[in-house]
Amino acid sequence: MAEILPIKAWRYHEKFTKQIEDLTSPLFDVVSTKQREALYNNPLNSIHLSVPLGENPAQNAAQCLEKWKKDQVLVQDKVPGIYVYYQYFRLPGQEQESCRKGFVANIKAYDWEEDVVLRHENTIAKAVNDRVELLKATKFQPSATHGLYEDESHSLEAFMDKAIEDPLYDLEDYQGVREVLAVIQDAEIIAKFIKVIKDKQIILADGHHRYEGAIEYRKSSLENNPSHTGFESYNYHMMYFTNAHSKDLRILPTHRIFTGFQFEEEALLEQISEFFFVKKLNDVEEIEELILQKKWAFGLIIGENAYKIRFYEENIDLMPSEIPEVIRNLDLMVLHYFFVEKVLGIPLEKQRYSDQIEYERNLRRCVLKTISWKASFSLITKDISMNQVLEVCKSGHTMPQKSTYFYPKTLSGLLFASIEESEFAFPYQMYQS
């Protein structure tokens, strides 16, 4: 069902291997302003390809890429490979180290209607358009999206464990996560990876904007190529694959920050109380503990004041019947419908376009931005379960944008994939088992 191929990857020249930690960058949608400023100061950092600067950022990235290729800052591996990618990490309060195991390969950029790659959340339109323009200009992918496959037997893990013993890179990233990358170039082993994945559906965990950009690029390329065969380079997209049955998958919450609203606090609380029980807290630090494990409970921060709000269960029948059962009971669906639409007046279908909603994983940054009145208020959310993500994906429906934050994030710059035909071409039939 899902066709994957090894990647004839581009990587930083081996002379930069000891500097690789300084050349990688966070993904485009999580890099902070301060991180950007520091990374842009390094003329060889991968951020110049993933989040380019200037009035014409896509063209600037294309010019930068051309120069890097000419100067051999980046060089292409002669033989395609499956790139094994392990991330070692600890969350607060966690004694034993976790390891998220996965591999990077090319996958066809299947349209959503093909029911091969399944999404679980909506996208933000502007971010998709930016990714499309960048892909058109560069025909280059500086970071992999993240897909999940289901394999209860963990049949590929032994091959990955063996490969990771001889890494290409072993570094610590901006999250404090140990990142290790290795490569498998044995054709027989690569064929096993292709065989395992070919009967799977892939659940898109992270990178909805980049993947949707790849779909749009593929569509436009198809329109311009009436003799399409299905094996052209523009059909493919770089993805990081992890097993959904792994014990070390982690999903963290993403909070909502609202800007540009004018209101009296008491009046807003009165509006909220139509749908939610509202309780003022003594300390903002209490929020996470008080909403944890509580269904339909959220934190609300207005200036220096903190509140716990909990949805009245009897109001769930007020949600439109056309919203399917699989998502109507999710915390974030309740929040986006009853708070963002009913209280704030932003309809569900327009929320993904709104410039008044920001998304932030770090609770402390939410607090600081709100108490300094750089934001009108913030809503603090909880994580969702892996089972909920799987259920939503398989149903064909989607959750509100930025519903999940799979941790840790992958890095830009460890590996690049080209969809320039001359750089992509290879007798890939040799990997058919």
Automatic annotation (TrEMBL):
PANTHER family referenced in this protein's UniProt entry, alphabetically: DUF1015 DOMAIN-CONTAINING PROTEIN, LMO2823 PROTEIN
InterPro entries, alphabetized: UCP033563 (IPR008323)
Pfam families: DUF1015
Species of the source: Belliella alkalica
Name this protein carries in UniProt: DUF1015 domain-containing protein
